[in-house]
Structure formats: structure tokens, C-alpha cells
Specification:
The complex is a heterodimer of chains A (293) and B (300).
Chain A lengths: L6 H33 L2 H6 L13 H8 L1 H32 L7 H13 L4 H10 L17 H12 L3 H9 L4 H12 L1 H17 L2 H6 L8 H10 L4 H4 L4 H42 L3
Helix pairs in contact in A: 1-14, 3-14, 4-7, 4-10, 4-12, 8-9, 10-14, 12-14
Chain B lengths: L1 H9 L1 H24 L12 H4 L6 H8 L1 H21 L1 H11 L4 H12 L6 H12 L4 H8 L11 H29 L3 H9 L4 H12 L1 H12 L7 H7 L5 H4 L2 H11 L3 H30 L5
Helix pairs in contact in B: 5-10, 6-10, 7-10, 8-14, 13-17, 16-17
The chains are: A mainly alpha (293), B mainly alpha (300).
């Protein structure tokens, strides 16, 4: 379309691009500020005022102090365990449920489906759930943050919708050749649903990485803390003391700030680095969910 | 009876496969619903849930008559209201603006950048906010350098809701827009051509064609949002609030957390939680039937 743009249209474009550029700046700059701060010399950083365009001074000290903190290692270890084992259980149970509920000619699928959908709108609440988990003796074990969130009803329904869209004929011919339900699920349905399985893995894994509430409720033993609870201690409850002991007290506040910045980077950069490569899948996931109506 | 037996025999593998799923929902959703009866009981650990004596609505009347009812209900409703008024339209506006961008690369860049904060954990977001807004943080450095003085944002009750809603927009505006962008691509392009022939400018095309085109999506998401009015993101509030700002930040869910998990009064806090869930369900049903009558869109 080569027609000339009117003055009004050009003004519209300029305003639009400016607003979006400003939005990008507001999104990106806080993250950049943290990265610059984490690489700065902590004493110079405290004296500095206003925007940072690059690190002031340069030092890896904060990173080495954070990495020496045993809680970071413990947090990473626990989070990785929760993420790997938890995501496996999530995806296994979700696909099992979604497959069964997408079968036709099964008498009880309708009531079971309604039972699952109902939980999206009403539940017993925090305390009765806590009592169940407690009575199962899961408190202070990593299972308490894996098992009670094993299936997301929403994800199950998304996956079921996807399974329903697969052609019946494949399954019928497999059954005629004597395949049982397990063969149909693992050899036919799942291989055809790899896009949705990938989306489920990503959603559940990111959920585990960022989850903090259940850990706060169920875990008191510091050896069991996932990364997010460790971060809470450092970033929000300001417990950087054990990392700053060998620093003169005057500089302790300065060092504490640098430690916070590098902690944020260490805990966030992995996921931010992976995300742009997987963005396609994530957006696809949102859209698969949207067509469920 | 015969069909039942036939069904059980023919589909026995299906039922075996779905058993763990049904068990999961039974154990972690329906058992707690059964256990919520302690809201009407004087719970004692020795007696257990089943044998503890009934006391009717005493916990509820204690809550309604107590000091916390007004404060927590008001905060829950106000935080939700602000979030709906400011947080809900933000992704819609972003989607509309992105739709008007001609250059594909710029569009992709904006999308990639604005989706990013969605993947930052809420702990880190709150930690960053605390650092930027601290008395010596960058925001106060900037305002004091242009002579506006400093504000102790984190200790001021009047700032809490703004910070809560604002950080939520920062984190979710991009991610929330995905669904609207998809809805916009579904709009019939001939509508735009017809409008252009009629001399409609970009602005009026946006308001008269794009916006009405995504209205059904907006309404569905708004119903879902209204049905969650009582479920404010208390995960973030638990991280953000301190006793200094309880006055504007303490919501029903955080009160349940303190009473139940920290103080251990399971029966009373279950009652407060049940009140919250029931009001929520009622609101969802109302919003849904209202919308079905007004626009024909509903979630069931």
C-alpha cells in the first residue's frame, strides 16, 4: 500500500511508537539496573546517585560472596529436584487424566469432568487443605510442594480439548489391530500431541521455578528451602549478614545491596535466558487454552 | 444396571488409568471441602475433625463482629477494584496499540520485552521494588535531585495499593495481551477496508472495529476476573506487607494465613476462609448470568 499518509496518521504513528518505546524502557530498565548494580563496586555504587548506564567500577565480589553462601546451593538443589520430579508427575498425571476424559463411550467421564471443573470455582480453602497435607505427614518434606499441586484442572482441560481434536480413525484402526488403551496413549495420542506436551512441560516447570506460597506454608526446615524462600530471606527479610561478616561494618550496608543485586541475577537470569528461545511455545500455550470454550 | 456392568468391563483400563487422577482431586480438593466443617465446630486436636463438638455459626459471628472484618473486607474489595479498573484494561490497550504498529520487527521486540517480567518470580519482583523504593533507592534519588523530596513508600499505608497494582501491571501487561492480540487477528479484514472506503481514520477504526471485534474475549475474561474478586494475589501481599501498612494491605486471605498457619486456630480461620470462598462463588455466578443476559457470552 503506497498511498501517502495523512498528517493525522503520521501523528498517530509517532505517538504510538513513542508510547510503546517508553513501555519497553520501563520494562527493561529495572532489569538492566539490577545487572549493572550487581557488577558495580559496592562502595562506589552507594555513592552513585540516579540512573546507571553501565556498572560503576567493576567487581565480581558480590557474586563470589553469594556463591559462597551455602543457602543458595541448597535452594538451587531443592528447586531443581522439585522442578524435575514435580514436572514429571504433573505431565504424567495431566495427560493420563486428559486422555481418559477425551474417550467417547465411557459412562463416567461426564461426572468426573464436572467434578474436576468444579474445583476451579470452589475449594475448601487454605486451612482445610493444610490439615490434609499435615495428616498425610508431608509437612517439611519436598513432597508437600509437589503432590498437592500435582494436577492443574485448567491444564488438564486444555490438554483434553487438544486430544479431542485428534482424528478418531487412527485410534480405531489401532484398536482393531489389538492395541490396548496404554498403547493408544503412548504410541499414538502422545506422539501426535508433542506441541501441547511441550507447552505443559514449560508451564509446569516455570510454575515450580517461581512457586513460593506452598513452600512458605509447608516447609520450616531450612535444608528443604527452595530457591524462592532463600531469596525471600535475602531480598525481603534482609538477612545478608552471614555473607558480609568479613567486611568492615561501615561498608556492610553497601555490600548488602550488591549482594541483593547479584542474588537476583543468579536466580533470574537462567529463566530469562531460556525464555526468548521458547517464547513461541509459551504463546502457543496461552492460545490453546483460549479456544477451550 | 447391565449397561453399568458392561461399561465397567469394557472400559476397565480407562478407569484404572484415571484412578490416580480422581484420587488426587478427591484427596486435595474434596477432602478439604469435607474438612471445612470445622468452620462450624470447636476444633480440638485430641477429638479430631469428626468428633469435635458443633458450635454453629459462632466463628462467623466472631469474625463479623470483630475488629478485622471491616478492615480485611474493605482492603480485599478495594485492591481488587483498583486492579480491575487499572490492571484489567492495560493489556487490552497494549494489544490495540501493538495492532497499529506497521513494522513487524518493532512489534516483535515490544512483545518479547513485555512478556519477560511474567517469568520473574514474585519474590524477585517484590525484592526489586523494595530496593528501588527504599529511602536511598533510585526513585528517591531521582525525585530528590529534581527537588521533589523523598517519600518512604514502603512505610506509607497510602502507597500500598498503588504499588501492588502498579507492579502487577509491570509484570503482566505483555503476557495478558497475548490473548487479545490473537483475538484481533481473527477479525475480518474486509471490515477495515469498508471503513477506509467510508473515510474512517486509524483512531476510529481502532475504536469502531478492533475494539468491538475483541469484545467477546474481553467480556469472558472480565467475568472470570469478577469471579475472582475475593481472591486477591495474597502471595504477593504476604511478601509486601509489614505491620506498618496492615491498615491498607491486610486482606481476608492474609488474615486467614496469620490466624491459621501462624497462630494455629484452624477452626476460626477455616470459617473466615469459607466466607471468602462462598462470596467469591456467588459473585462468579452473578457475573456470569448477568453477562449471559446482557451479551450472550458466558463461561458455562
Amino acid at each position: 500500500m503506497n498511498r501517502k499518509k495523512s498528517f493525522g496518521e503520521r501523528a498517530f504513528d509517532i505517538a504510538n511508537v513513542s508510547i510503546l518505546t517508553l513501555l519497553c524502557f520501563c520494562t527493561l530498565y529495572p532489569i538492566l539496573y539490577i545487572i549493572f548494580g550487581s557488577l558495580s563496586d559496592s562502595v562506589l555504587l552507594v555513592r552513585h546517585s540516579g540512573f546507571l548506564y553501565k556498572p560503576v567500577g567493576f567487581s565480581w565480589d558480590a557474586y563470589s560472596m553469594v556463591l559462597k553462601n551455602p543457602m543458595i546451593g541448597i535452594g538451587y538443589r531443592n528447586t531443581l529436584f522439585i522442578l524435575v520430579v514435580g514436572t514429571f508427575i504433573n505431565v504424567a498425571l495431566t495427560s493420563l487424566g486428559a486422555y481418559c476424559l477425551s474417550r467417547r463411550n465411557v459412562l463416567f467421564t461426564k461426572p468426573i469432568l464436572m467434578m474436576i471443573v468444579f474445583t476451579m470455582f470452589f475449594n475448601g480453602g487454605l486451612i482445610p487443605t493444610f490439615m490434609v497435607v499435615k495428616n498425610l505427614h508431608m509437612v517439611d518434606t519436598l513432597w508437600s510442594v509437589i503432590i498437592p499441586t500435582a494436577i492443574s484442572a485448567y491444564n488438564l482441560i486444555v490438554m483434553r480439548t487438544f486430544f479431542l481434536s485428534l482424528p478418531d480413525s487412527l485410534e480405531e484402526s489401532a484398536k482393531m489391530d489389538g492395541a490396548n488403551e496404554y498403547t493408544v496413549l503412548f504410541r499414538i495420542v502422545l506422539p501426535l500431541s508433542m506441541p501441547v506436551v511441550a507447552v505443559m512441560i514449560l508451564f509446569y516447570a516455570v510454575g515450580h521455578w517461581n512457586a513460593f506460597l506452598n513452600a512458605l506454608i509447608y516447609l520450616n526446615d531450612r535444608d528443604k528451602f527452595p530457591l524462592q524462600l532463600v531469596l525471600r530471606e535475602i531480598l525481603i527479610q534482609n538477612s545478608t549478614d552471614n555473607m558480609t561478616t568479613d567486611t568492615a561494618s561501615l561498608d556492610a550496608a553497601a555490600v548488602a545491596q550488591s549482594i541483593k543485586y547479584s542474588t537476583i541475577v543468579i536466580a533470574t537470569v537462567p529463566i530469562l535466558f531460556i525464555y526468548p528461545f521458547l517464547q513461541r511455545y509459551f504463546t502457543k500455550g496461552v492460545l490453546i487454552g483460549a479456544i477451550k470454550e | 444396571m447391565r449397561t453399568l456392568r458392561k461399561d465397567l468391563r469394557r472400559n476397565r483400563h480407562i478407569y484404572m488409568m484415571i484412578a490416580p487422577v480422581v484420587m488426587y482431586f478427591g484427596l486435595f480438593y474434596y477432602l478439604p471441602i469435607y474438612g471445612v466443617q470445622i468452620a462450624f465446630k470447636q476444633y480440638s486436636i485430641m477429638e479430631g475433625i469428626w468428633n469435635s463438638p458443633w458450635i454453629g455459626f459462632k466463628h462467623f459471628s466472631d469474625f463479623f463482629g470483630g475488629y478485622y472484618f471491616d478492615r480485611t473486607l474493605r482492603n480485599t474489595l478495594l485492591i481488587s477494584l483498583y486492579d480491575i479498573v487499572f490492571g484489567f484494561p492495560a493489556p487490552i490497550i497494549l494489544a490495540l496499540l501493538l495492532n497499529e504498529v506497521g513494522r513487524k520487527h518493532f512489534r516483535n521486540l515490544v512483545q518479547t520485552l513485555t512478556y519477560m517480567p511474567h517469568f520473574i518470580s514474585v519474590v524477585v519482583v517484590v525484592g526489586m521494588m523494595f530496593d528501588f523504593l527504599a529511602r536511598g533507592g533510585i526513585i528517591n534519588q531521582l525525585t530528590s535531585s529534581i527537588g521533589l523530596g523523598t517519600v518512604s513508600y514502603l512505610q506509607s499505608p497510602e502507597w500500598f495499593r498503588t504499588l501492588y497494582v502498579g507492579s502487577g501491571i509491570w509484570q503482566q501487561i505483555g503476557w495478558g495481551s497475548i490473548i487479545y492480540i490473537a483475538a484481533i487477528t481473527g477479525i475480518d479484514p474486509t471490515l477495515y477496508e469498508a471503513a477506509r472506503v467510508d473515510g474512517a481514520g486509524r483512531w476510529s477504526q481502532m475504536l469502531r472495529i478492533t475494539l468491538p471485534g475483541i469484545m467477546p474475549t474481553i467480556i469472558i475474561l472480565l467475568i472470570l476476573r469478577l469471579g475472582n474478586v475475593m481472591n486477591v494475589g495474597y502471595e504477593k501481599i504476604l511478601l509486601m506487607y509489614t505491620p506498618v501498612v496492615y491498615e491498607t494491605s491486610d486482606v481476608i486471605s492474609t488474615y486467614v494465613y496469620r490466624k491459621g498457619i501462624l497462630d494455629g486456630s484452624f477452626d476460626y480461620s477455616s470459617a473466615v476462609g469459607l466466607f471468602n470462598s462462598v462470596v467469591n462463588l456467588v459473585l462468579l455466578v452473578c457475573a456470569n448470568s448477568l453477562s449471559r443476559r446482557a451479551s450472550g457470552s458466558s463461561i458455562w
